[in-house]
Amino acid sequence: MLDMRPDCERCGTDLPPARPGAFICSFECTFCTECADALDERCPNCGGELMDRPTRTGDALKRHPASTTRHFTG
Fold first, then answer.
1. pLDDT tens by residue, 18-54
2. Which domains, from first to last, does the chain contain?
3. In this structure, are residues 24 and 53 in contact, taking their beta carbons and an 8 Å threshold?
4. Would you list the DSSP string of 28-49?
5. Hey, which of 43, 44, 50, 62 has its CA 20 to 30 A from 26?
6. Which helix (H) or strand (E) segment is 61 a member of?
């Protein structure tokens, strides 16, 4: 199950689990669309490809809530 991190690691933008617009690598590093574009869809942490993160809504989100741990260090 994906961690569904709440923010972009590069700029701190909020990335709610039910909305599209988040990109992740295979280690679940998470970035907003603008930062993923600026990074040429490559994770700066591991070099892996950044892919669209799926959304999580409804009962699935209630049973498996998104993480609240922010990763932006500013």
1. 999 999 999 999 999 999 999 999 999 999 999 999 9
2. 1-67 (3.30.40)
3. yes
4. --EEEHHHHHHTTTB-TTT-PB
5. 62
6. helix 58-63
